[in-house]
Amino acid sequence: MNSTENMDSFEGTWGSPEPGEPHLQFAADGTVVGSDGCNRLMRKWTLEDGVIYFHQMVSTMMYCEGMDTWLQAAASARRQGETLQVFDRAGVQIGVLPRSA
Fold this sequence. Notes:
Strand order of the largest sheet: 1-2-3-4-5-6-7-8
Pfam family, one: META
Mean pLDDT: 88
Number of strands: 8
Domain DUF306: 17-91
Region (Disordered): 1-24
Helix content: under 10%
CATH architecture: Beta Barrel
Order of helices and strands: EEEEEEEE
Organism: Corynebacterium casei LMG S-19264
CATH topology: Lipocalin
Protein name: DUF306 domain-containing protein
C-alpha cells in the first residue's frame, strides 16, 4: 500500500452481501457491519500505516451447521488491490474478501 491511502479507499462493501456469504461494509464514521455468513458482525475500525484494526466487536451468536465463521476471528486487514486480506490476532491470514461492485 502507498502512504496516500486513507480511510476513503476502504469505504464500501468487501465480500458478497448475499445470504450465507461473508462480507464487511466499512463506513467513513469508523464503523463496520457485515456477516460471517451466519452471524451479524458490528465493529469499530481504525486505519494505521495502511492496516485496518478492528475494535469493540459485537456479534450475534447463532449456530449455523457447516458454516465457516472465520470472519469472527478478524483482528486486522490489509488492502491488496481489489481484495482485502484478513488476519487474526496472531497475524495469520484467515481469509480474503473481494471488493463488491
